[in-house]
Write a structure and sequence with these properties.
By secondary structure, the chain is mostly helical. It has 22 helices and 5 strands. The longest helix is centred in the middle third of the chain and has 54 residues.
Length: about 575
Amino acid sequence: MGQKMPAVPEREAVHRAEPPANAATAATLRHGSVRPSEAARSAAATPRVTDIPPPPDEPQSSRLKLPGALLATTVVLLAYVGAIGFFQFVIPNAPSLIAQVGGGVAVAIVVFFFHAFLGGSFVEHTLRAEEAYRAGLRFIALVAPSIVRWIIYACLFGMFIVAFYDLAGWNAEPVARLRVLGAVAMPAILATCAALLVERRFARGEFSLEITYPPTMPLRDRTDWKFKLDRTWSYEAGLMRESVQRMGRHAAIFGFLGSAILIACAVILLRYAKDEDELRHLVALSVGAATTVSFTLNLGQVLFRSASNDSTARMMAWSARTLLIVSVATAFFSVAFLSGSGDSSDGKGYLFQGYKGALIVGVAVALLGERILRAVKDRAATLLGVGNAAVARTGDMTLIDGLSDEDIARLAEEGIDSTHALAYCPTPRLFFNTPYGLQRLCDWQDQALLIARVGRTNAQLLREQYMIRGAVAARQLAREICTREGGGTQRTPDPPSEKLAAMPSEEGEDEVAKLRALAKAMGFIGVNQAVLGLRSLVDDEAIERLELFSRAVPIWHRGGVMEVPPRGTNVAGA
Protein backbone atom coordinates (compact mmCIF):
# COMPACT_ATOMS: atom_id res chain seq x y z
CA MET A 1 0.00 0.00 0.00
CA GLY A 2 2.94 2.30 0.63
CA GLN A 3 3.92 2.05 -3.04
CA LYS A 4 0.40 2.49 -4.47
CA MET A 5 -0.76 5.69 -2.67
CA PRO A 6 1.82 8.15 -4.10
CA ALA A 7 0.99 7.09 -7.68
CA VAL A 8 -2.76 8.05 -7.57
CA PRO A 9 -2.38 11.85 -7.89
CA GLU A 10 -0.04 11.43 -10.82
CA ARG A 11 -2.45 9.17 -12.68
CA GLU A 12 -5.36 11.54 -12.00
CA ALA A 13 -3.34 14.52 -13.19
CA VAL A 14 -2.47 12.75 -16.43
CA HIS A 15 -6.12 11.83 -16.88
CA ARG A 16 -7.30 15.42 -16.37
CA ALA A 17 -4.77 16.71 -18.84
CA GLU A 18 -6.16 14.48 -21.58
CA PRO A 19 -9.02 15.58 -23.83
CA PRO A 20 -12.41 13.94 -23.09
CA ALA A 21 -12.52 12.27 -26.49
CA ASN A 22 -9.53 9.98 -25.73
CA ALA A 23 -11.41 7.39 -23.68
CA ALA A 24 -9.21 4.40 -24.56
CA THR A 25 -6.04 5.92 -23.20
CA ALA A 26 -7.82 6.99 -20.04
CA ALA A 27 -9.09 3.47 -19.42
CA THR A 28 -5.61 2.00 -19.94
CA LEU A 29 -4.10 4.38 -17.42
CA ARG A 30 -6.87 3.77 -14.89
CA HIS A 31 -6.73 -0.06 -14.89
CA GLY A 32 -3.12 -0.70 -15.86
CA SER A 33 0.03 -0.99 -13.82
CA VAL A 34 0.38 1.19 -10.78
CA ARG A 35 3.96 2.19 -11.62
CA PRO A 36 4.04 5.37 -13.74
CA SER A 37 6.41 4.77 -16.61
CA GLU A 38 7.83 7.34 -18.99
CA ALA A 39 6.37 5.43 -21.96
CA ALA A 40 2.86 5.83 -20.52
CA ARG A 41 3.42 9.51 -19.92
CA SER A 42 4.61 10.06 -23.49
CA ALA A 43 1.71 8.03 -24.81
CA ALA A 44 -0.76 10.14 -22.79
CA ALA A 45 0.61 13.42 -24.10
CA THR A 46 0.52 12.39 -27.75
CA PRO A 47 -3.20 12.68 -28.71
CA ARG A 48 -3.64 16.38 -27.85
CA VAL A 49 -5.78 18.45 -30.18
CA THR A 50 -3.15 21.16 -30.41
CA ASP A 51 -0.60 18.68 -31.69
CA ILE A 52 -2.72 17.72 -34.71
CA PRO A 53 -1.02 19.19 -37.77
CA PRO A 54 -3.18 21.64 -39.75
CA PRO A 55 -4.28 20.69 -43.23
CA PRO A 56 -1.96 21.76 -46.01
CA ASP A 57 -2.65 25.22 -47.44
CA GLU A 58 -4.31 25.20 -50.80
CA PRO A 59 -2.80 27.44 -53.46
CA GLN A 60 -4.81 30.62 -53.87
CA SER A 61 -6.29 31.02 -57.29
CA SER A 62 -5.73 34.27 -59.10
CA ARG A 63 -8.93 33.74 -61.07
CA LEU A 64 -11.02 34.69 -57.99
CA LYS A 65 -9.38 38.14 -57.75
CA LEU A 66 -9.70 39.02 -61.41
CA PRO A 67 -13.47 39.83 -61.43
CA GLY A 68 -13.07 42.04 -58.34
CA ALA A 69 -10.19 43.98 -59.92
CA LEU A 70 -12.12 44.44 -63.15
CA LEU A 71 -15.17 45.63 -61.21
CA ALA A 72 -13.11 48.13 -59.22
CA THR A 73 -11.48 49.50 -62.38
CA THR A 74 -14.84 49.81 -64.12
CA VAL A 75 -16.46 51.63 -61.21
CA VAL A 76 -13.54 54.07 -60.89
CA LEU A 77 -13.70 54.88 -64.61
CA LEU A 78 -17.47 55.33 -64.47
CA ALA A 79 -17.14 57.65 -61.47
CA TYR A 80 -14.59 59.80 -63.27
CA VAL A 81 -16.60 59.90 -66.50
CA GLY A 82 -19.78 60.72 -64.54
CA ALA A 83 -18.10 63.60 -62.73
CA ILE A 84 -16.67 65.03 -65.95
CA GLY A 85 -20.05 64.65 -67.69
CA PHE A 86 -21.83 66.38 -64.81
CA PHE A 87 -19.58 69.42 -65.00
CA GLN A 88 -19.73 69.46 -68.81
CA PHE A 89 -23.49 69.17 -69.33
CA VAL A 90 -25.05 70.35 -66.06
CA ILE A 91 -22.59 73.16 -65.30
CA PRO A 92 -21.08 73.99 -68.68
CA ASN A 93 -19.67 77.35 -67.54
CA ALA A 94 -17.60 75.83 -64.75
CA PRO A 95 -13.81 76.24 -65.15
CA SER A 96 -11.84 73.25 -66.30
CA LEU A 97 -9.94 73.18 -63.02
CA ILE A 98 -13.20 72.71 -61.10
CA ALA A 99 -14.18 69.82 -63.39
CA GLN A 100 -10.82 68.12 -62.91
CA VAL A 101 -10.95 68.55 -59.14
CA GLY A 102 -14.52 67.18 -59.10
CA GLY A 103 -13.46 64.12 -61.09
CA GLY A 104 -10.56 63.51 -58.72
CA VAL A 105 -12.86 63.79 -55.71
CA ALA A 106 -15.27 61.26 -57.25
CA VAL A 107 -12.42 58.82 -57.87
CA ALA A 108 -11.14 59.32 -54.31
CA ILE A 109 -14.56 58.55 -52.87
CA VAL A 110 -14.90 55.37 -54.91
CA VAL A 111 -11.39 54.22 -53.98
CA PHE A 112 -12.09 54.91 -50.32
CA PHE A 113 -15.22 52.74 -50.31
CA PHE A 114 -13.49 49.93 -52.18
CA HIS A 115 -10.64 50.01 -49.70
CA ALA A 116 -13.15 49.84 -46.86
CA PHE A 117 -14.80 46.74 -48.32
CA LEU A 118 -11.58 44.81 -49.00
CA GLY A 119 -10.27 42.16 -46.61
CA GLY A 120 -13.48 40.96 -45.00
CA SER A 121 -17.05 39.94 -45.46
CA PHE A 122 -19.48 42.30 -47.12
CA VAL A 123 -21.88 42.38 -44.16
CA GLU A 124 -19.12 43.14 -41.68
CA HIS A 125 -17.76 46.07 -43.67
CA THR A 126 -21.26 47.31 -44.36
CA LEU A 127 -21.87 47.52 -40.63
CA ARG A 128 -18.55 49.25 -40.09
CA ALA A 129 -19.31 51.76 -42.84
CA GLU A 130 -22.72 52.45 -41.33
CA GLU A 131 -21.21 53.01 -37.88
CA ALA A 132 -18.57 55.30 -39.32
CA TYR A 133 -21.27 57.20 -41.21
CA ARG A 134 -23.35 57.67 -38.05
CA ALA A 135 -20.29 58.75 -36.10
CA GLY A 136 -19.53 61.29 -38.80
CA LEU A 137 -23.09 62.61 -38.66
CA ARG A 138 -22.84 62.97 -34.89
CA PHE A 139 -19.57 64.84 -35.24
CA ILE A 140 -21.03 67.13 -37.90
CA ALA A 141 -24.09 67.80 -35.73
CA LEU A 142 -21.75 68.66 -32.86
CA VAL A 143 -19.54 71.12 -34.73
CA ALA A 144 -22.11 72.47 -37.21
CA PRO A 145 -23.58 75.13 -34.87
CA SER A 146 -20.11 76.52 -34.27
CA ILE A 147 -19.28 76.95 -37.96
CA VAL A 148 -22.67 78.14 -39.23
CA ARG A 149 -21.70 81.78 -38.77
CA TRP A 150 -18.45 81.33 -40.68
CA ILE A 151 -20.22 79.49 -43.50
CA ILE A 152 -22.66 82.39 -43.79
CA TYR A 153 -19.83 84.90 -43.89
CA ALA A 154 -18.03 82.84 -46.54
CA CYS A 155 -21.16 82.75 -48.71
CA LEU A 156 -21.61 86.49 -48.30
CA PHE A 157 -17.97 87.10 -49.22
CA GLY A 158 -18.46 85.02 -52.38
CA MET A 159 -21.53 87.08 -53.29
CA PHE A 160 -19.48 90.26 -52.86
CA ILE A 161 -16.80 88.95 -55.22
CA VAL A 162 -19.35 87.98 -57.88
CA ALA A 163 -21.12 91.34 -57.55
CA PHE A 164 -17.80 93.21 -57.76
CA TYR A 165 -16.94 91.67 -61.12
CA ASP A 166 -20.53 91.85 -62.32
CA LEU A 167 -20.72 95.60 -61.67
CA ALA A 168 -17.74 96.13 -63.97
CA GLY A 169 -20.28 96.55 -66.77
CA TRP A 170 -21.74 99.51 -64.88
CA ASN A 171 -18.52 101.24 -63.88
CA ALA A 172 -14.98 100.16 -64.56
CA GLU A 173 -13.61 102.09 -61.60
CA PRO A 174 -13.01 99.74 -58.64
CA VAL A 175 -13.56 102.55 -56.13
CA ALA A 176 -17.14 103.14 -57.29
CA ARG A 177 -17.96 99.44 -57.10
CA LEU A 178 -16.40 99.16 -53.63
CA ARG A 179 -18.57 102.04 -52.42
CA VAL A 180 -21.70 100.23 -53.54
CA LEU A 181 -20.58 96.98 -51.93
CA GLY A 182 -19.68 98.80 -48.72
CA ALA A 183 -23.18 100.26 -48.56
CA VAL A 184 -24.91 96.91 -49.06
CA ALA A 185 -22.58 95.26 -46.52
CA MET A 186 -23.86 97.48 -43.69
CA PRO A 187 -26.74 95.14 -42.66
CA ALA A 188 -24.31 92.27 -42.05
CA ILE A 189 -21.90 94.52 -40.14
CA LEU A 190 -24.62 96.07 -37.96
CA ALA A 191 -26.22 92.70 -37.20
CA THR A 192 -22.82 91.32 -36.15
CA CYS A 193 -22.24 94.30 -33.86
CA ALA A 194 -25.70 93.83 -32.32
CA ALA A 195 -24.88 90.18 -31.69
CA LEU A 196 -21.69 91.21 -29.91
CA LEU A 197 -23.64 93.64 -27.75
CA VAL A 198 -26.06 91.00 -26.52
CA GLU A 199 -23.27 88.70 -25.43
CA ARG A 200 -23.43 90.52 -22.09
CA ARG A 201 -26.46 88.40 -21.28
CA PHE A 202 -23.97 85.73 -20.30
CA ALA A 203 -23.51 87.67 -17.06
CA ARG A 204 -27.07 86.81 -15.99
CA GLY A 205 -26.06 83.16 -15.75
CA GLU A 206 -23.50 84.02 -13.06
CA PHE A 207 -26.19 84.51 -10.42
CA SER A 208 -26.48 82.09 -7.54
CA LEU A 209 -29.57 81.44 -5.46
CA GLU A 210 -29.67 81.93 -1.70
CA ILE A 211 -32.59 79.95 -0.31
CA THR A 212 -34.35 80.65 2.98
CA TYR A 213 -36.29 77.63 4.15
CA PRO A 214 -39.42 77.77 6.31
CA PRO A 215 -38.62 77.25 9.99
CA THR A 216 -40.83 74.16 10.24
CA MET A 217 -39.32 72.33 7.26
CA PRO A 218 -37.50 69.13 8.32
CA LEU A 219 -33.80 68.79 7.63
CA ARG A 220 -34.33 65.87 5.22
CA ASP A 221 -36.76 67.91 3.16
CA ARG A 222 -34.30 70.79 3.09
CA THR A 223 -31.60 68.53 1.67
CA ASP A 224 -33.93 67.13 -0.98
CA TRP A 225 -35.18 70.54 -2.03
CA LYS A 226 -31.67 71.95 -2.16
CA PHE A 227 -30.67 69.20 -4.57
CA LYS A 228 -33.74 69.73 -6.77
CA LEU A 229 -33.47 73.51 -6.90
CA ASP A 230 -29.74 73.35 -7.52
CA ARG A 231 -30.19 71.02 -10.49
CA THR A 232 -33.05 73.08 -11.92
CA TRP A 233 -31.12 76.33 -11.57
CA SER A 234 -27.98 74.92 -13.20
CA TYR A 235 -29.95 73.33 -16.04
CA GLU A 236 -31.79 76.53 -16.91
CA ALA A 237 -28.56 78.55 -16.69
CA GLY A 238 -26.97 76.19 -19.23
CA LEU A 239 -29.97 76.55 -21.54
CA MET A 240 -29.68 80.32 -21.30
CA ARG A 241 -26.03 80.20 -22.40
CA GLU A 242 -26.94 78.04 -25.38
CA SER A 243 -29.72 80.48 -26.22
CA VAL A 244 -27.23 83.35 -26.33
CA GLN A 245 -25.05 81.36 -28.71
CA ARG A 246 -28.05 80.64 -30.93
CA MET A 247 -28.87 84.32 -30.87
CA GLY A 248 -25.48 85.12 -32.39
CA ARG A 249 -26.07 82.66 -35.23
CA HIS A 250 -29.56 84.02 -35.92
CA ALA A 251 -28.14 87.54 -35.92
CA ALA A 252 -25.66 86.45 -38.60
CA ILE A 253 -28.53 85.03 -40.66
CA PHE A 254 -30.47 88.27 -40.21
CA GLY A 255 -27.57 90.37 -41.47
CA PHE A 256 -26.85 87.95 -44.31
CA LEU A 257 -30.43 88.18 -45.59
CA GLY A 258 -30.40 91.96 -45.53
CA SER A 259 -27.07 92.23 -47.36
CA ALA A 260 -27.91 89.49 -49.87
CA ILE A 261 -31.21 91.14 -50.85
CA LEU A 262 -29.55 94.54 -51.20
CA ILE A 263 -26.75 93.04 -53.33
CA ALA A 264 -29.29 91.54 -55.74
CA CYS A 265 -31.24 94.81 -55.94
CA ALA A 266 -28.06 96.86 -56.50
CA VAL A 267 -26.85 94.59 -59.31
CA ILE A 268 -30.27 94.67 -61.01
CA LEU A 269 -30.53 98.46 -60.71
CA LEU A 270 -27.01 99.31 -61.82
CA ARG A 271 -26.14 96.54 -64.22
CA TYR A 272 -29.18 94.93 -65.84
CA ALA A 273 -31.89 97.63 -65.82
CA LYS A 274 -31.81 99.28 -69.23
CA ASP A 275 -34.27 102.06 -68.47
CA GLU A 276 -35.34 103.82 -65.29
CA ASP A 277 -39.00 103.33 -66.21
CA GLU A 278 -38.58 99.60 -66.79
CA LEU A 279 -40.59 97.34 -64.49
CA ARG A 280 -37.47 95.41 -63.53
CA HIS A 281 -35.88 98.63 -62.34
CA LEU A 282 -38.97 99.65 -60.36
CA VAL A 283 -39.38 96.27 -58.67
CA ALA A 284 -35.73 96.19 -57.61
CA LEU A 285 -36.00 99.74 -56.27
CA SER A 286 -39.16 98.91 -54.32
CA VAL A 287 -37.71 95.72 -52.81
CA GLY A 288 -34.49 97.51 -51.87
CA ALA A 289 -36.41 100.32 -50.17
CA ALA A 290 -38.63 97.86 -48.27
CA THR A 291 -35.62 95.81 -47.15
CA THR A 292 -33.79 98.90 -45.92
CA VAL A 293 -36.78 100.21 -43.94
CA SER A 294 -37.64 96.79 -42.46
CA PHE A 295 -34.05 96.09 -41.45
CA THR A 296 -33.77 99.53 -39.82
CA LEU A 297 -36.95 99.01 -37.79
CA ASN A 298 -35.93 95.55 -36.62
CA LEU A 299 -32.41 96.70 -35.81
CA GLY A 300 -33.81 99.50 -33.66
CA GLN A 301 -35.91 97.00 -31.75
CA VAL A 302 -32.90 94.74 -31.25
CA LEU A 303 -30.78 97.61 -29.93
CA PHE A 304 -33.54 98.73 -27.57
CA ARG A 305 -33.98 95.21 -26.23
CA SER A 306 -30.23 94.70 -25.86
CA ALA A 307 -30.03 97.90 -23.81
CA SER A 308 -32.57 96.33 -21.45
CA ASN A 309 -30.60 93.06 -21.40
CA ASP A 310 -33.58 91.34 -23.00
CA SER A 311 -32.37 90.01 -26.36
CA THR A 312 -33.27 86.46 -27.34
CA ALA A 313 -32.67 84.11 -30.24
CA ARG A 314 -36.40 84.12 -30.98
CA MET A 315 -36.28 87.89 -31.48
CA MET A 316 -33.45 87.57 -34.02
CA ALA A 317 -35.24 84.77 -35.85
CA TRP A 318 -38.44 86.81 -35.90
CA SER A 319 -36.57 89.76 -37.41
CA ALA A 320 -35.14 87.56 -40.15
CA ARG A 321 -38.60 86.12 -40.84
CA THR A 322 -40.10 89.61 -41.07
CA LEU A 323 -37.39 90.65 -43.52
CA LEU A 324 -38.14 87.70 -45.78
CA ILE A 325 -41.90 88.31 -45.66
CA VAL A 326 -41.47 92.01 -46.44
CA SER A 327 -39.21 91.34 -49.42
CA VAL A 328 -41.57 88.75 -50.93
CA ALA A 329 -44.68 90.86 -50.30
CA THR A 330 -43.00 93.92 -51.83
CA ALA A 331 -42.09 92.02 -54.98
CA PHE A 332 -45.71 90.85 -55.28
CA PHE A 333 -47.26 94.30 -54.75
CA SER A 334 -44.70 95.93 -57.02
CA VAL A 335 -45.66 93.66 -59.89
CA ALA A 336 -49.35 94.21 -59.13
CA PHE A 337 -49.42 98.00 -58.62
CA LEU A 338 -46.37 99.47 -60.39
CA SER A 339 -46.13 100.57 -64.00
CA GLY A 340 -43.89 102.71 -66.13
CA SER A 341 -44.69 106.30 -67.01
CA GLY A 342 -45.73 105.25 -70.51
CA ASP A 343 -48.17 102.54 -69.39
CA SER A 344 -51.87 103.28 -69.24
CA SER A 345 -53.86 102.65 -66.07
CA ASP A 346 -57.23 102.25 -67.84
CA GLY A 347 -58.86 98.98 -66.96
CA LYS A 348 -56.05 97.99 -64.59
CA GLY A 349 -57.14 99.77 -61.44
CA TYR A 350 -54.97 102.23 -59.54
CA LEU A 351 -51.31 101.97 -60.47
CA PHE A 352 -48.25 103.68 -58.99
CA GLN A 353 -45.93 105.06 -61.63
CA GLY A 354 -42.24 105.80 -61.73
CA TYR A 355 -39.61 105.58 -59.03
CA LYS A 356 -41.76 107.59 -56.61
CA GLY A 357 -44.47 104.96 -56.77
CA ALA A 358 -41.86 102.24 -56.25
CA LEU A 359 -40.57 103.94 -53.13
CA ILE A 360 -44.12 104.42 -51.80
CA VAL A 361 -44.97 100.74 -52.27
CA GLY A 362 -41.74 99.56 -50.66
CA VAL A 363 -41.94 101.83 -47.62
CA ALA A 364 -45.66 101.08 -47.08
CA VAL A 365 -45.14 97.32 -47.14
CA ALA A 366 -42.15 97.60 -44.79
CA LEU A 367 -44.12 99.67 -42.27
CA LEU A 368 -47.09 97.31 -42.31
CA GLY A 369 -44.89 94.24 -41.98
CA GLU A 370 -46.75 90.98 -41.42
CA ARG A 371 -50.13 92.69 -41.31
CA ILE A 372 -50.11 93.18 -45.04
CA LEU A 373 -49.31 89.50 -45.53
CA ARG A 374 -52.28 88.62 -43.34
CA ALA A 375 -54.47 90.90 -45.47
CA VAL A 376 -53.23 89.23 -48.64
CA LYS A 377 -54.02 85.79 -47.20
CA ASP A 378 -57.52 86.82 -46.19
CA ARG A 379 -58.18 88.41 -49.57
CA ALA A 380 -56.89 85.36 -51.45
CA ALA A 381 -58.99 83.04 -49.28
CA THR A 382 -62.08 85.15 -50.00
CA LEU A 383 -61.47 85.13 -53.74
CA LEU A 384 -60.87 81.38 -53.84
CA GLY A 385 -63.77 80.58 -51.53
CA VAL A 386 -61.53 79.04 -48.87
CA GLY A 387 -62.52 79.56 -45.26
CA ASN A 388 -60.14 81.48 -43.03
CA ALA A 389 -58.40 79.73 -40.20
CA ALA A 390 -60.08 79.93 -36.82
CA VAL A 391 -58.83 82.74 -34.63
CA ALA A 392 -56.77 81.46 -31.75
CA ARG A 393 -58.11 81.90 -28.22
CA THR A 394 -56.77 85.05 -26.65
CA GLY A 395 -56.09 83.30 -23.33
CA ASP A 396 -56.76 84.35 -19.76
CA MET A 397 -53.55 86.20 -18.96
CA THR A 398 -55.55 89.32 -18.13
CA LEU A 399 -56.68 87.62 -14.91
CA ILE A 400 -53.17 87.97 -13.48
CA ASP A 401 -52.81 91.13 -11.45
CA GLY A 402 -49.76 93.18 -12.41
CA LEU A 403 -49.47 92.04 -16.05
CA SER A 404 -49.61 94.80 -18.66
CA ASP A 405 -50.12 94.32 -22.38
CA GLU A 406 -46.38 94.63 -22.99
CA ASP A 407 -45.68 92.02 -20.32
CA ILE A 408 -48.22 89.66 -21.88
CA ALA A 409 -46.61 90.14 -25.31
CA ARG A 410 -43.14 89.56 -23.84
CA LEU A 411 -44.21 86.35 -22.11
CA ALA A 412 -45.83 85.22 -25.35
CA GLU A 413 -42.37 85.30 -26.95
CA GLU A 414 -41.38 82.58 -24.48
CA GLY A 415 -44.41 80.45 -25.41
CA ILE A 416 -46.53 81.48 -22.41
CA ASP A 417 -50.00 82.39 -23.66
CA SER A 418 -52.22 81.21 -20.80
CA THR A 419 -52.30 81.03 -17.02
CA HIS A 420 -51.74 77.27 -17.19
CA ALA A 421 -48.51 77.78 -19.14
CA LEU A 422 -47.42 80.49 -16.72
CA ALA A 423 -48.17 78.34 -13.67
CA TYR A 424 -46.12 75.35 -14.80
CA CYS A 425 -43.23 77.07 -16.53
CA PRO A 426 -39.96 76.65 -14.56
CA THR A 427 -39.26 79.80 -12.58
CA PRO A 428 -35.51 79.88 -13.37
CA ARG A 429 -36.30 79.75 -17.10
CA LEU A 430 -38.39 82.90 -16.85
CA PHE A 431 -35.73 84.55 -14.72
CA PHE A 432 -32.92 83.84 -17.17
CA ASN A 433 -34.84 84.58 -20.39
CA THR A 434 -36.80 87.68 -19.37
CA PRO A 435 -35.80 91.01 -17.79
CA TYR A 436 -38.18 90.62 -14.83
CA GLY A 437 -37.12 90.11 -11.24
CA LEU A 438 -37.47 86.83 -9.41
CA GLN A 439 -40.03 88.07 -6.88
CA ARG A 440 -42.26 89.55 -9.58
CA LEU A 441 -42.19 86.33 -11.56
CA CYS A 442 -43.03 84.33 -8.44
CA ASP A 443 -46.00 86.61 -7.75
CA TRP A 444 -47.36 86.07 -11.27
CA GLN A 445 -46.84 82.33 -11.05
CA ASP A 446 -48.43 82.27 -7.59
CA GLN A 447 -51.65 83.77 -8.96
CA ALA A 448 -51.60 81.54 -12.05
CA LEU A 449 -51.04 78.40 -9.96
CA LEU A 450 -54.02 79.23 -7.76
CA ILE A 451 -56.22 79.60 -10.86
CA ALA A 452 -54.91 76.31 -12.23
CA ARG A 453 -55.56 74.49 -8.94
CA VAL A 454 -58.96 75.79 -7.79
CA GLY A 455 -60.37 77.39 -10.93
CA ARG A 456 -61.05 80.94 -11.98
CA THR A 457 -64.23 81.42 -9.88
CA ASN A 458 -62.82 80.01 -6.63
CA ALA A 459 -59.62 81.99 -7.04
CA GLN A 460 -61.63 85.19 -7.37
CA LEU A 461 -63.70 84.21 -4.33
CA LEU A 462 -60.61 83.60 -2.19
CA ARG A 463 -59.18 86.95 -3.20
CA GLU A 464 -62.36 88.90 -2.48
CA GLN A 465 -63.44 87.27 0.81
CA TYR A 466 -60.18 86.07 2.40
CA MET A 467 -57.56 88.38 0.82
CA ILE A 468 -55.75 85.31 -0.53
CA ARG A 469 -53.73 86.38 -3.55
CA GLY A 470 -52.02 83.20 -4.65
CA ALA A 471 -51.51 79.49 -4.16
CA VAL A 472 -49.00 79.87 -1.30
CA ALA A 473 -51.50 81.73 0.90
CA ALA A 474 -54.25 79.29 -0.09
CA ARG A 475 -51.99 76.45 0.97
CA GLN A 476 -51.54 78.01 4.39
CA LEU A 477 -55.31 78.40 4.81
CA ALA A 478 -55.85 74.80 3.71
CA ARG A 479 -53.22 73.61 6.18
CA GLU A 480 -54.95 75.52 8.99
CA ILE A 481 -58.37 74.06 8.16
CA CYS A 482 -57.06 70.51 7.83
CA THR A 483 -55.16 70.77 11.10
CA ARG A 484 -58.10 72.17 13.08
CA GLU A 485 -60.39 69.49 11.73
CA GLY A 486 -57.95 66.79 12.87
CA GLY A 487 -57.15 65.54 9.39
CA GLY A 488 -53.56 66.66 9.29
CA THR A 489 -51.37 65.13 6.64
CA GLN A 490 -48.04 63.36 7.00
CA ARG A 491 -46.11 66.37 5.81
CA THR A 492 -47.50 68.61 8.58
CA PRO A 493 -47.15 66.63 11.81
CA ASP A 494 -46.31 69.59 14.06
CA PRO A 495 -48.88 71.38 16.19
CA PRO A 496 -50.64 74.26 14.48
CA SER A 497 -49.28 76.79 16.92
CA GLU A 498 -45.74 76.18 15.60
CA LYS A 499 -46.74 76.43 12.00
CA LEU A 500 -49.15 79.30 11.48
CA ALA A 501 -50.83 82.01 13.42
CA ALA A 502 -54.11 80.81 14.83
CA MET A 503 -57.30 81.72 13.00
CA PRO A 504 -58.95 84.71 14.72
CA SER A 505 -62.12 83.98 16.63
CA GLU A 506 -64.59 85.97 18.74
CA GLU A 507 -65.53 85.26 22.32
CA GLY A 508 -67.99 82.42 22.59
CA GLU A 509 -67.72 81.47 18.91
CA ASP A 510 -67.97 77.77 18.12
CA GLU A 511 -64.91 76.39 16.32
CA VAL A 512 -66.95 73.88 14.32
CA ALA A 513 -69.39 76.55 13.24
CA LYS A 514 -66.53 78.74 12.08
CA LEU A 515 -65.02 75.94 10.00
CA ARG A 516 -68.44 75.14 8.57
CA ALA A 517 -68.91 78.77 7.56
CA LEU A 518 -65.50 78.79 5.86
CA ALA A 519 -66.29 75.60 3.97
CA LYS A 520 -69.66 76.98 2.84
CA ALA A 521 -68.11 80.25 1.68
CA MET A 522 -65.59 78.31 -0.40
CA GLY A 523 -68.33 76.32 -2.10
CA PHE A 524 -68.07 73.04 -0.14
CA ILE A 525 -71.05 71.18 1.27
CA GLY A 526 -69.47 70.38 4.61
CA VAL A 527 -66.27 70.47 6.58
CA ASN A 528 -65.26 66.94 5.59
CA GLN A 529 -65.56 67.75 1.92
CA ALA A 530 -63.56 70.93 2.46
CA VAL A 531 -60.82 68.94 4.18
CA LEU A 532 -60.67 66.38 1.38
CA GLY A 533 -60.60 69.11 -1.24
CA LEU A 534 -58.00 71.27 0.45
CA ARG A 535 -55.65 68.44 1.41
CA SER A 536 -54.37 68.39 -2.18
CA LEU A 537 -53.16 71.97 -1.69
CA VAL A 538 -51.32 71.00 1.49
CA ASP A 539 -49.38 68.24 -0.26
CA ASP A 540 -48.84 70.14 -3.53
CA GLU A 541 -45.16 69.96 -4.48
CA ALA A 542 -45.46 72.70 -7.13
CA ILE A 543 -46.74 75.18 -4.53
CA GLU A 544 -43.93 74.27 -2.15
CA ARG A 545 -41.34 74.74 -4.88
CA LEU A 546 -42.79 78.12 -5.78
CA GLU A 547 -42.78 79.13 -2.12
CA LEU A 548 -39.07 78.33 -1.87
CA PHE A 549 -38.31 80.37 -5.00
CA SER A 550 -40.34 83.27 -3.62
CA ARG A 551 -38.25 83.14 -0.42
CA ALA A 552 -34.96 82.93 -2.37
CA VAL A 553 -32.73 85.86 -3.30
CA PRO A 554 -30.52 85.92 -6.44
CA ILE A 555 -27.00 86.97 -5.51
CA TRP A 556 -23.98 87.69 -7.69
CA HIS A 557 -21.59 84.78 -7.77
CA ARG A 558 -18.17 86.32 -7.03
CA GLY A 559 -15.84 83.48 -7.89
CA GLY A 560 -15.39 81.03 -5.05
CA VAL A 561 -15.97 83.53 -2.19
CA MET A 562 -19.48 83.30 -0.76
CA GLU A 563 -20.81 84.93 2.38
CA VAL A 564 -22.09 82.63 5.07
CA PRO A 565 -25.90 82.68 4.89
CA PRO A 566 -27.87 83.48 8.05
CA ARG A 567 -29.29 80.83 10.29
CA GLY A 568 -32.00 78.75 8.66
CA THR A 569 -30.73 79.38 5.13
CA ASN A 570 -28.81 77.38 2.63
CA VAL A 571 -27.21 78.13 -0.72
CA ALA A 572 -27.75 76.39 -4.03
CA GLY A 573 -25.14 77.66 -6.45
CA ALA A 574 -25.73 77.85 -10.15
